[in-house]
Amino acid sequence: MITLNGHDVFYTYPNGETGLAHDKVSFHCSVIYNSIHLKYEDDGDIFKLVLLKDFLDTLGVFCKLVMPYVPYSRMDRVEGGSAFTLKGFCRLINNLDFPSVEICEPHSEVVLALLDRVSVTYLTDYLFNVASGFYGFRPAIDKVFLPDAGAIKRYGHSYNPKMTAIGNKVRDFATGNIVSYDVLTPIPKSAVVYIIDDLCSKGGTFVLCTEALIKAGAAHCVLITAHCEPVVSEGMIPNCDKITKMFTTDTMLTEPLNIPKIQVYKFNDIYKKGGPNYGNDANRIV
Question: Which pLDDT does position 284 carry in this prediction?
């Protein structure tokens, strides 16, 4: 979905081509502040983004890009049979020449290296504040858990090391399956463990690490992810009784999940609280 200052300015011709409503664009443009919001649903949104930015350029309209989830961010290297498609996507965004690009919870530092004029919001900061307040975080017992190497790189500097635990997974890239999982840090008995990561699909990895954490001594786990795909409802998380609650946002959701244990917060509500710098390092509280 592409919106200009919160408004849909597109329509579709009978043959499937995309139309851009000149009168709507002109009506919703501001003299001072304009924002295109890309909430990725499919590749058609990327084409709409190109059309809208090109038209705004012809009008001489200043406009930033807000892109909560960066499409193709998981394809951030050549690995197994996967090509480095993030590079091509970021080159396209850079060529559109936005004066600023605001993103949330990048999958890796590769995203930051490839995008020009980028700023970052860490939604997991907000979600951890909510979750830890809900359960009453006990610094001497409870743990923030970083489930793999990617999470350790993203969040390893963000939380008090005494409160942080880490894990490691081994994946077979030929099949995509995780062949083993280990908790590498001692877990106190009866600890509540807050698993933090950027993205949840069906959640198999999180269920696997939860099982390992329970064996290591945890009482139960709370899952916190910035982004969540709709397929989470088809996975194992809804029926995993040791994940008592999941906190996430709607950056990738277009319909309510209606799963009681998954609490979804609206990106726009979080964004309004602090803008692009809500979750920068200076605001991290633990």
Answer: 33
